[in-house]
Amino acid sequence: MDILQLIQSNLLTPIILFFLFGIIAARIKSDLKIPEAISEFLPIYLLAAIGLHGGIEMRNTGFENMLIPMLVAIGLSLLFTLNHYQILRRLGKFNIFDSYALASTYGAVGAVTFSVGLSFLKNQGVSSEGYLAAILAVLEPVAFIMAIFLTNVAVSKQIRAKKQSFTNDDTSDIEMGIQGTKTKLSQVLHESITGKAIVILLGSIVIGYIIGESGFDSISIVFDEMFTGAIVIFMIEMGIIAGQRLDDIKKVGIFLTAFAIIMPTFNGIIGVLVATAMGLSLGGAVMFGLLLASASFIAAPAVLRHAIPQANPSLYITSALGITFPYNIIVLLPIMFAISTLVHSEGSIDLFNYIIKGLI
Amino acid sequence: MKLYNVKLLTITCEILAQKNIIEILKNHEITGYTSYEVEGNGARGLRGQGLQTEKNVKVEVIMREEKLSDVIEEISQTLFADFAIVLYVSDVGVLRTEKF
Question: Would you tell me which residues 30-59 of chain A have a C-beta closer than 8 angstroms to some C-beta of chain B?
């Protein structure tokens, strides 16, 4: 079958092989480790490369056609986050904090997953719209901000209810709580916008836009030709960290494991179909789907540990990094590529038909 | 030389709690501290490996005894439940007491 073949050939690419190798290295308790400075440098490098490419592309295509995909992406991301929350809270019986933390982890985007997706497309000889890099930057804080806002609302509601049950007319505590909530939210907003990932991404987009194709020539050896190689090195590190967490997966539970596989598949396929309906190219639809399918595991702990400290970080880090990330890059990426190829090869767009086909 | 008695508060915690601690110190008008990255094992398993955000730090603060109980009370009330934290206090002697 077509999809199976794609998965198989994807499995034998250097990116996936080095990731699996990293897992094995961690399992045999090797002392293999990517030096800290390099593993800190690589995400910055990857984001700079993504941003530069995006900026150059945007110079060629202009901003106008970016607006609708961006708004749709934000809308879907918010919708999915709410949907995750309902599923986790009602079906998974997670507490309110874990539910919101997990919901936003899966509503947010993964920059590493995005890089792997770009290099997957490069491998297939397909290009994607450059403005997706800008969507990546905008989408990053959206899911967190909403989850944090809703958590705070829920907590202050609880405090209010408790106060009322004591029929205490002293409301100063509640007001203090609400005040605290507001400052917390603006702090999170400030922190996530000035966070290194978004700053380097937006900065590179602007620089890419200014320098254009001709200016990029002089640096393309670093930011173009070395891109896949750099991901490979980073994948060793990701593999090692995922491998170290393999034991934790047992603690995550069957429900969350299933959630960590089913939700990205659902979100990703919807993403591909919606993107196709909006007129994105074959590769662009795959990347759009990947944006919605990916979970955040580098930015999420930094944001959520402060904003929702009550949530258990090992739940959201382990499920995002240990389950969803490998699944996304090994299995889901080829599936989305096959679906996107399918819906792009035929002229008309009959969404229902494609979903059925996609599931078969 | 005469040594003056002051308290040394040592907090070993996950790196993401460091900001909260420094915030609390600031609220009590303590601006001086020293921090460094550490590794170790404890109730929350081996720490200091893996992701950047999962590192551990050790924060050392010298302060006068008067402020100590307020500071540790606030830290224990706001952070103990949600973060990996170990906190202890020791007696130290300093030469220039006006610095603290």
Answer: 39-40
